Amino acid sequence: MSKQTKFLLNEDQMPKAWYNLQADLPKPLPVVLHPGTMQPVGPDDLAPLFPMSLILQEVSTEREVEIPEPVRDVYRLWRPAPLYRAHGLEKALGTCAKIYYKYEGVSPAGSHKPNTAVPQAFFNKEAGVKRLVTETGAGQWGTSLAFAGGHYGLQVEVFQVRVSYDQKPYRRAMMETYGARCVASPSIETEYGRSVLAKHPDHRGSLGIAISEAVELAVQRDDTKYALGSVLNHVLLHQTVIGLEAMQQMEMADTWPDVVVGCTGGGSNFAGMVFPFIGHGLRGGPKPRIVAVEPAACPSLTRGKYAYDFGDTAGMTPLTKMHTLGSQFTPPGFHAGGLRYHGMAPMVSHAKELGLLEAVAYKQVECFEAGVLFARTEGIVPAPEANHAVRGAIVEALRCKREGKAETILFCLSGHGHFDMASYQKYFAGQLSDESYDEAELAMALAGLPSVPEPA
Fold first, then answer.
1. Could you tell me if 303 and 329 are in contact, meaning their C-beta atoms sit under 8 angstroms apart?
2. Rounded CA gap, 134 and 190, in Å?
3. 55, 87, 203, 365: which is deepest, by most CB within 10 A?
4. In angstroms, what CA-CA distances link 354 with 153, 237, 243, 357?
């Protein structure tokens, strides 16, 4: 058995096109609805928020979408990303499974998010946009858009969820280093933010609220567009460079995954890793089990309802059919801020409804326990979000140990935890708890889902 640890691609082996799962789905995605008319949206309806190039990617059903050469030039700063065999983790678990992980923490921002931040900034720059506004939870997306915006000379403004703004000051400092402006959300800078603070002056914030604030600013100026770091089809499309590279690297390792695992919040790193494998299976190739791991404190896939809902709290965004906890739901302030979103990406949700993936939810402390074991055996300190994927992979490896199966497990390590050490300190001090949501609040949020007649 080979003891090779790293599987590296050359820059000329980087994918030249993103993969679009919509081309291979056995059933098309439900239509997107206008928040005012409840009718299917057209490209013009999305034009105030996005440049036409990204809108066309959003609705495309082409299997391959070309990656512009200028984008690939920036990707070369960190792509192709390495694939590792987790020999140390395998030994510690005493498993007969083979564990591989695709490491996205090698990007300038320390996570997978620049995979979409760079093309979004590029296409906005091409369209003559001067300013981008966005939201961020843990700060990985805000950092990434700040990096990409700085590269293309765009002004970037970021609304960061208040609880993460307070928990992760160095993420904010990194955004400012790249030239972006970061404010805590809810803020006094938007009408919606002020309305939230008027009712709840100490509101901890949510991604839904931060999205509302960013969208409110985006539509006020012609030179400004909105950028989203997850959920939407074009974002998931850009992230497929992860899985496309991983497929080549698994062939280098002379194996193929039996199980592919990823953490899920909005769905971008998960989709980026698993969509190419799902598509390969739909076209006649092997079909690995696909496991989405989400936080038990914000379980959209395992507890949410598959229904039309707003992507933001104020109800300004188009409605998509997705697994949702309700746009009025505010998750508790657990440390995986990037997974604190009320809804799951429509395409990930649709794939689950089609039986193409399964979902599990794990609690915060057990995920940190997995992250610490991974750090001590593999040397990389994962982000709290990525700890969920580590936990999922360990659970699968221990299953293989019980069953005596030598399966191959692949997971996406979506980012490092170098800006999350305060949460690790709390874990070691015994101050990290398994936060849970209010069942009554969840019930109220689900009861408040918009009433939408099923489109014909």
1. no
2. 13
3. 55
4. 42, 19, 20, 8
Omega before residue 51 within 30° of 0, cis: no
Residue (of 398, 412, 411) closest to 97 by Cα position:
398
pLDDT digits (tens, 9 = 90+) for 103-115: 999 999 999 999 9
DSSP string computed for 152-203: TT-EEEEEEEHHHHHH-HHHHHHHHHTT-EEEEES-SSSHHHHHHHHH-TT-
Using DSSP's 3-state secondary structure scheme, residue 235 falls into helix
Token digits for 120? Answer: 């979004």
Structure tokens at 208: 């839904």
Residue partners of 31: CB distance under 8 A and separation at least 6: 40, 41, 455
Q: How far is it, in rounded angstroms, from Cα 383 to Cα 336?
A: 8
Strand 181-185: give its sheet, edge to edge.
181-185, 155-161, 131-136, 224-226
288-341 pLDDT per residue, tens:
999 999 999 999 999 999 999 998 888 888 999 999 999 888 777 666 666 778
What are the φ/ψ torsions at residue 11 (nearest 5 degrees)? Answer: -60, -30
Q: CB burial class (10 A; 0-12, 13-18, 19+) of residue 2? A: exposed
The dihedral of CA 105, 271, 150, 187: what is its sign? negative
Rounded distance between C-alpha atoms, residue 278 and residue 243, angstroms:
10
Which tokens go with 403?
């069953």
**Could you tell me the pTM of the whole model?**
0.95
Alpha-carbon separation of residue 310 from 38, 143, 327, 443, 456 (angstroms): 11, 25, 6, 17, 20
Nearest to 74 by CA among 103, 110, 107: 107
Residue given tokens 């990617």 in the structure block: 57
DSSP state of 21: G
- Whole-angstrom Cα distance, residue 200 to residue 25? 43
Q: Over the Cα atoms of the chain, what is R_g?
A: 20
**Cis amide linkage into residue 186, ω under 30° from 0:** yes
Tell me if residue 148 falls in helix, strand or coil.
Answer: helix
Q: Distance (Å, rounded) from C-alpha 331 to C-alpha 308?
A: 19
Pairing of strands 305-310, 319-324: antiparallel
- How many Å apart are CA 127 and CA 37, to the nearest integer? 28
